């Protein structure tokens, strides 16, 4: 009966970050014995009192037992924690964090007792119930969250937490103990929730980067570029030169550090090739026929002809801090940049991305292997290629029907289809159809499987156009067989599109894109 009342209370008492932790205590409605402080489980699950864990416990005890007797004492405690963590060898950081997450998280005994008090208080008046609910809310806050909140107030504290969360995200998959992994997951979620508050749009500063910007900032733009790596100084100068805009978000707690970077090309139409953008610094960059070898150095300081600019192409967006993963910054940056460009160029009427399709080739080869294996054991219920595509490939390659799938896979894996223009043309239709299927039909929990698609669709963009031979660099070929996609932002519809996608998983697209999906299930 108590359990039932407790669940009813949970339904009524919705709390933000704390509500995730209530699930952890539902199975503990009987008193639990206190866990011995000095005996720890290793990440492999065996028990041992290691010197590393003992040192971590002793240090953490000095931190959490020190009272906050003023601003100076508080800052001193926070700095001691930061300096101690940064001084640890990389191999000792995760054991330290697992000890922190388990011993200084939520006190489950306290939570269970206060939860019982909430159930009992329901019959004793609204005032007592509200007071008891507040105690429960406070009990559900991990001890380390209070410490992290204070660390965020000291100089360099926010960057420290960003870097510490990056360590957790990097090493979390290697934690073997399910018990420790659960505690570590809550630890990183707690830091993420704090960072999401501190990195809300009101605390971010938009900054345009040009060749005249501070050298260290320009260098970081080059170092952090993850979508289309910058090759040399000339390439970097083109990316911040005429008919280009490079914007970053910075944060007051991380001066001189770009948090997220957006590269934009200013053109007369929506670009269908990344080579036309990266290889040509002037307005000729809108030329869709440019190839990887058609480099034009041009004048990166060329005066921009405003009358010719009618489209803004977002061709690279990079989050520079792994510790901010899961904190939505790119969406805010795109919206802010759109407003900035509208103020600067009244003639811009088209906003679109030119996006890579990471994961398509891996997905396709995996699907081909699955279907080939099914055929080998006599199961033939799932087709990847259409009968017309099989016939075309059979005739073009002079191979029997049963060899088409394996040959198709081999051509993709060895890049053999690129060596012959005729074979390349034969491969175009099935590859574009399957890529359209990957972007539009393949899902993860109801949302687009491809992470870049999920990002832009969540922002309210339309799955607008799939582009053949749009990125013929080795990176582009390995990612997506050279294809790229435009996600177009119709500003008057972005809010509605975003809501439909996030609530109902509806993907807005165009008739031309849907035509690629003909006969695809």
From TrEMBL:
<dbReference type="InterPro" id="IPR038351">
    <property type="entry name" value="MCD_N_sf"/>
</dbReference>
<dbReference type="InterPro" id="IPR035372">
    <property type="entry name" value="MCD_N"/>
</dbReference>
<protein>
    <submittedName>
        <fullName>Malonyl-CoA decarboxylase, mitochondrial-like isoform X1</fullName>
    </submittedName>
</protein>
<dbReference type="InterPro" id="IPR038917">
    <property type="entry name" value="Malonyl_CoA_deC"/>
</dbReference>
<feature type="domain" description="Malonyl-CoA decarboxylase N-terminal">
    <location>
        <begin position="104"/>
        <end position="199"/>
    </location>
</feature>
<dbReference type="InterPro" id="IPR042303">
    <property type="entry name" value="Malonyl_CoA_deC_C_sf"/>
</dbReference>
<dbReference type="GO" id="GO:0005759">
    <property type="term" value="C:mitochondrial matrix"/>
</dbReference>
<dbReference type="Pfam" id="PF17408">
    <property type="entry name" value="MCD_N"/>
</dbReference>
<dbReference type="GO" id="GO:0050080">
    <property type="term" value="F:malonyl-CoA decarboxylase activity"/>
</dbReference>
<dbReference type="GO" id="GO:2001294">
    <property type="term" value="P:malonyl-CoA catabolic process"/>
</dbReference>
<dbReference type="GO" id="GO:0005782">
    <property type="term" value="C:peroxisomal matrix"/>
</dbReference>
<dbReference type="GO" id="GO:0006633">
    <property type="term" value="P:fatty acid biosynthetic process"/>
</dbReference>
<feature type="domain" description="Malonyl-CoA decarboxylase C-terminal">
    <location>
        <begin position="202"/>
        <end position="489"/>
    </location>
</feature>
<dbReference type="InterPro" id="IPR007956">
    <property type="entry name" value="Malonyl_CoA_deC_C"/>
</dbReference>
<dbReference type="Pfam" id="PF05292">
    <property type="entry name" value="MCD"/>
</dbReference>
<dbReference type="GO" id="GO:0006085">
    <property type="term" value="P:acetyl-CoA biosynthetic process"/>
</dbReference>
């Amino acid at each position: 009966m108590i359990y039932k009342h407790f669940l009813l209370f949970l339904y009524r008492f919705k709390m933000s970050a704390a509500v995730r932790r209530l699930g952890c205590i539902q199975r503990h409605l009987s008193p639990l014995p206190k866990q011995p402080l000095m005996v720890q489980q290793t990440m492999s699950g065996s028990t041992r009192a290691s010197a590393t864990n003992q040192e971590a416990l002793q240090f953490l005890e000095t931190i959490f037992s020190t009272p906050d007797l003023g601003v100076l004492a508080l800052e001193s405690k926070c700095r001691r924690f930061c300096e101690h963590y940064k001084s640890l060898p990389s191999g000792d950081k995760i054991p330290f964090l697992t000890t922190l997450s388990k011993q200084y998280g939520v006190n489950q005994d306290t939570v269970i007792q206060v939860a019982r008090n909430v159930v009992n208080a329901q019959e004793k008046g609204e005032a007592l119930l509200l007071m008891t609910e507040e105690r429960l809310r406070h009990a559900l806050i991990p001890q380390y969250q209070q410490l992290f909140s204070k660390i965020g107030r000291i100089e360099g504290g926010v960057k420290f937490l960003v870097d510490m969360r990056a360590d957790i995200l990097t090493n979390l998959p290697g934690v073997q103990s399910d018990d420790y992994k659960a505690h570590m997951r809550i630890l990183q979620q707690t830091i993420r929730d704090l960072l999401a508050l501190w990195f809300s749009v009101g605390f971010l500063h938009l900054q345009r980067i040009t060749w005249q910007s501070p050298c260290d900032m320009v260098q970081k733009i080059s170092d952090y570029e993850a979508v289309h790596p910058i090759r040399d100084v000339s390439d970097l100068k083109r990316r911040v030169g005429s008919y280009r805009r490079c914007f970053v978000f910075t944060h007051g707690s991380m001066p001189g550090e770009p948090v997220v970077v957006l590269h934009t090309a200013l053109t007369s139409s929506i670009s269908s090739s990344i080579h036309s953008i990266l290889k040509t610094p002037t307005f000729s960059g809108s030329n869709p026929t440019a190839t990887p070898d058609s480099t034009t150095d041009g004048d990166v300081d060329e005066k921009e002809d405003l009358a010719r600019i009618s489209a803004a192409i977002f061709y690279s967006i990079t989050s520079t801090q792994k510790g901010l993963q899961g904190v939505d910054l790119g969406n805010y940056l795109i919206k802010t940049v759109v407003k900035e460009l509208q103020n600067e160029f009244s003639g811009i009427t088209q906003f679109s991305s030119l996006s890579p399709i990471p994961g398509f080739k891996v997905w396709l080869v995996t699907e081909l292997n699955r279907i080939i294996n099914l055929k080998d054991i006599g199961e033939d219920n799932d087709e990847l290629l259409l009968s017309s595509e099989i016939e075309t490939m059979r005739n073009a390659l002079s191979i029997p029907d049963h060899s088409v799938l394996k040959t198709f896979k081999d051509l993709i894996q060895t890049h053999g289809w690129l060596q012959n223009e005729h074979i390349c043309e034969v491969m175009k239709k099935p590859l574009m159809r399957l890529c359209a299927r990957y972007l539009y039909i393949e899902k993860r929990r109801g949302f687009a499987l491809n992470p870049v698609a999920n990002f832009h669709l969540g922002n309210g963009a339309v799955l607008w156009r799939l582009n053949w031979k749009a990125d013929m660099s080795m990176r582009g070929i390995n990612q997506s067989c050279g294809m790229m996609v435009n996600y177009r932002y119709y500003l008057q519809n972005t809010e509605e599109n975003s809501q439909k996608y996030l609530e109902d998983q509806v993907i807005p697209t165009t008739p031309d894109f849907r035509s690629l999906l003909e006969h695809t299930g």
